Amino acid sequence: MNKLSRNIAILIISGLFIGCYSERSYKGDGVLADNGPLSFYGRYDLHLGNVSLAESREYAFQAAKLPKERFAVGFNIQSLPNDAEYATVNVHLIIQNERREVVVDESGPLSEWVWGHASGGSESFVYRRGKSKDVQVTENTWKSTPIGVKADQGHGSYFMPRPNGKYEVRIKVQVSMPRQMEVADVMFSGVGA
User: Fold this and answer.
1) Quick one: three-class SS letters along 162-188?
2) What pTM value is reported for the model?
3) Is position 9 within any domain?
4) What confidence tens digit (pLDDT) does each residue in 118-171 have?
5) How many structural domains comprise the chain?
6) How many CB atoms lie within 10 A of CB 187?
7) d(CA 46, CA 90)
């Protein structure tokens, strides 16, 4: 290997490790998983814990010292979208930072949330997109612009944690009709920086 190739290889390898975050830095509830720097989706996923979708109840979780990665906060549900079944489950998700600023404040029946799932899969990631409007940039170009962005770039159920930020996640589940026992895994799913 010539000197130039060796130097390029060192730069690439160094770039992968400069500013690395260790999941051991995370403080709070649940388990933070590092999917690696070459992950197809975001690098980090935080599994906060479970909530019941069968009974009305409130939950609280804490998360601090998260990696600098944009997260979509939502629920892993072992089901595919079913509007009739999930219209009776209302969820209110609130995230506040240590400054008591609202980062995320989303509520509504789960049937109105976004259900993302892999083709052929039986598990869905359920989250909220933020509202946006199209703004004309040039005569033939339009750009989607977020509306109602909150603290820490909160938009829908997405946000970008600050270094050393502390977050309280509160979830209120209201069930209007009796349901079979079902739980959802509360997730911070990394979507990249």
Assistant:
1) CCCCEEEEEEEEEECCCCCCCEEEEEE
2) 0.85
3) no
4) 777 889 999 999 999 999 999 999 999 999 999 999 999 999 999 899 999 999
5) 1
6) 21
7) 23
